[in-house]
Amino acid sequence: MPASNLPIRDAQRDVPGLALAIRGTKRVILGQSLALHGKDAEKAKPSRMLLRVHWDVPGCSLAGRGTKRFTFGGSLALLGNNDEKDMLTGTCQARPSLSGARRMLFRARAWHSTGTTMKSSWPTRFAENVRDYEGYPIGKTIQYLTDPEIISLAGGLPSPEVFQRSQMRAASIHALDTNIDRIMQYSPIPGEASLVNAVIGFLERDSIRIGRENIVITSGGQSALDLTGRLFLEPGDTVMVDRPTFAGAIVTFQMQRPRFIGIDIEADGSDIVGMRRQLEQLTREENLPKFIYVVPDFQNPSGITMSLAKREALLDLSYEFDVPIVEDSPYRDLRYRGETIPALYSLDQRREGGHVIGLYTFSKLFCPGMRVGFNIGPAEVVTRMTHIKEGAILNTPKWNQDMCTAFLTEWDLDEHLENCRSYYREKLDVFLRTMAEYFPPETGVTWTVPEGGLFLWVSVPAHIDTAKLFFDAIEHKVAFVPGEQFYGEKPEHNHMRINFSFVSKEDLAEAVRRLANCVRKA
Ligand SMILES: Cc1ncc(COP(=O)(O)O)c(C=O)c1O
Asked: Do residue 117 and residue 209 come from a single domain?
């Protein structure tokens, strides 16, 4: 049957006063339009509609792709650049955007001209909470960086120059020689006892005292965040985060569809006064946050560290409003200058609060390739996280855990950490010196001066949108992560996250020079 002869069923209606030319499952033809019209029998007639369109035939495009506002009475053109001109498959959903109007859906599908085979429309089957999710924005940023001439300050990578290669090789061989059957087998879900014990010892150095019932080994920090989000968040819950905050936390928590409440970050950490104001407001709304998420030490992305006074004040708020704190600590041991400030977890222990959950990863101190981290907290919380882990990933590979145990207990941890610190400190200093040289005050460019960690935050004049600047930067063979990716709500557009740990000192200086050229032209 030629495509133009495909039958189109009559319109149906279920919103009072509203009819659609195409409703229900339909056969439509490439090049045809879907007319959206209505009868104004009722005053509640929607004048605008929110239309979400999924079109999944390679080579086909749609005028109204994505989520669009549509004027009622308008039409949606189906365009195609497909070689198979008479075939397309897709689904449109329309929803009147006026409150009070009933939800309206329609599906339009086109078929092979034979009418016998219909391509499956996968996106319509995706769960609501991931349907619009297009992947981790930082991952997308990094995909542009394939040109080897680009100096990338984008990823959060530790430097391979501090990797303990010989220890790793020797420990791997030893583990395989002595323990191969257990390494190749399933292992305990909460984690290998040897690693759990090593972690308990590691945390004691930081005045944190926990038992085995307070810890679950995770597959890296991202998995630690995932267990936290899944345990606490439901659609509509609020979660309080800094502005900016770690993009990976936003992405992970977003899966549970919470509402983010952003708290500005100041030079010494979260704006505690603003946080109190928000907590009071949320108390009135009876929607207190399920938790407050913070990265107190050398925050990703800003490099900012929360002062002791603010840590105490944050705990005060946590107790007063009975809102727990999630303390994410990947960088705590990477301090290059200044005094170590007690972790929120240990301050809370001193006050017997039991209000803090700690998230850790071996990715930045040891190596990200192992994908090992851990969560600590009250036993009832950790037990639940362990149950969720069981359903999600079962266990973290034993071999990876054994390498982490060796890292903590056998390879001279202090020497390694000191090595990392002096190496990264030098890089940070090169970066800061070159920034001062290329961005004098009259450029209006400012940056944070972190005391540790792997990142700093550069702010450019407000008229520059760093998401656009990113593409100019690539032309100049330098890359960063646009700052807008680090906001749970109301993103700001004139910042960039800079990683200084990965590239060589020489490349760091050259990267700043390229960045300056690019910003000057913006
Ligand atoms: C604050 C923070 N939390 C968690 C993670 C995730 O850690 P991992 O790489 O181990 O998944 C990162 C990684 O950059 C991070 O910066």
From this structure: no
Share of the chain residues as helix, strand and coil, in percent rounded to the nearest 5: 40, 20, 45
Atom of ligand 1 minimally distant from the CA of 371: 10
Q: Is 392 buried (19+), middle (13-18) or exposed (0-12) by CB count in 10 A?
A: middle
- 325 and 356 co-located in one domain: yes
Give the count of beta carbons closer than 10 Å to the beta carbon of residue 478: 26
Residue 77: strand pairing partners? 33
Q: What is the pLDDT along the chain (522 residues), one digit of tens a residue?
A: 333 333 323 222 333 333 333 333 333 444 444 444 333 333 333 444 444 444 443 443 343 334 444 444 444 444 333 333 333 334 444 444 333 333 333 333 333 333 333 445 677 778 878 877 877 777 777 777 788 899 999 999 999 999 999 999 999 999 999 999 999 999 999 999 999 999 999 999 999 999 999 999 999 999 999 999 999 999 999 999 999 999 999 999 999 999 999 999 999 999 999 999 999 999 999 999 999 999 999 999 999 999 999 999 999 999 999 999 999 999 999 999 999 999 999 999 999 999 999 999 999 999 999 999 999 999 999 999 999 999 999 999 999 999 999 999 999 999 999 999 999 999 999 999 999 999 999 999 999 999 999 999 999 999 999 999 999 999 999 999 999 999 999 999 999 999 999 999 999 999 999 999 999 988
Domain boundary residue, one of 410, 437, 454: 410
pTM: 0.80
Do 27 and 82 belong to one domain? yes
CA-CA distance, 113 to 460, in Å (whole number)? 55
User: Looking at residue 378, which CATH number applies to its domain?
Assistant: 3.40.640.10
Give me ligand 1 centre to Cα 137, in Å. Answer: 15
Structural domains of the chain, count: 3
Specify whether 406 is located in the same domain as 471: no
Calculate how far, in angstroms, residue 361's C-alpha sits from the geometric centre of ligand 1: 7
Question: Which atom of ligand 1 is nearest to 373's Cα?
Answer: 10
What is the Å distance from ligand 1's center to 345 Cα? Answer: 18
Is 332 in the same domain as 203? yes
Please answer whether residues 270 and 314 qualify as being in contact, where contact means their C-beta atoms are separated by less than 8 angstroms: yes
CATH, residue 507:
3.90.1150.10
- Whole-number Å distance, alpha carbon 117 to ligand 1 midpoint, is 45
Q: Which domain holds residue 43?
A: 3-131
CA separation for the pair 396, 409 (Å, rounded): 19
Per-residue three-class SS string for 427-444 = HHHHHHHHHHHHCCHHHC
Tokens of 251: 């992405």
Whether the CB of 361 sits within 6 Å of ligand 1? yes
* Same domain assignment for residues 503 and 356: no
Report whether residue 368 contacts ligand 1, using a CB cutoff of 6 Å. Answer: yes
Say yes or no: 48 and 147 in one domain. no
Residues 265 and 315 placed together within one structural domain of the fold = yes
Ligand 1, atom 4: nearest CA belongs to which residue? 221
> What is the distance of C-alpha 397 from the center of its chain?
24
Domain boundary (131, 149, 180) is at 131
